[in-house]
Amino acid sequence: MSYNVLLYYYYTPLDDYNEYFNLHKTFCNKYDFKGRIIIAKGGINGTLSGNDVDCKAYINFIYSDNRFRNLEFKIDKCDSHCFPKLSIKLRDEIVSLKVPHLDPNITTGKNISPKKFLEMIKHHDTVLVDV
Predict the structure, then answer these.
(1) Where does the sequence pass through the membrane (predicted)?
(2) Residue 67 in contact with residue 39, Cβ under 8 Å?
(3) What tens digit of pLDDT does each residue of 83-131 get?
(4) Could you give all domains of the chain from N- to C-terminal order, each with its CATH number?
(5) Across the beta sheet with 86-90, what order do the strands follow?
(6) How far apart are CA 61 and CA 69, in angstroms?
């Protein structure tokens, strides 16, 4: 059986994040997923492994909510589960920045293509910071 790892995050207001958390947990418990999902008032962040069929069902579940229609999954193939268990948690932030009132949908960097990124890091005056 073939497996996938889904990596994703998406900033969007979730005023019903407690309800969405419960809905998400109920859905995921019907499948054989392992990994970590964080749900907060500001969106969702996850790294999840599962077989091809289950991952397709999860992607369809996410896209069935219009708030996530622009979410982009990074998908990699793997031979088996990559994580020991499934953890779905409610948190204050999907990425712990500890910067109150920051809206990454408004205050953000500029998106660049992979080709442009590779061109930029070839220059000696480019500094790459991975936080």
Answers:
(1) none
(2) no
(3) 999 999 999 877 766 666 666 666 667 778 888 888 888 877 887 776 5
(4) 3-90 (3.30.70.100)
(5) 74-78, 3-11, 43-51, 34-40, 86-90
(6) 11
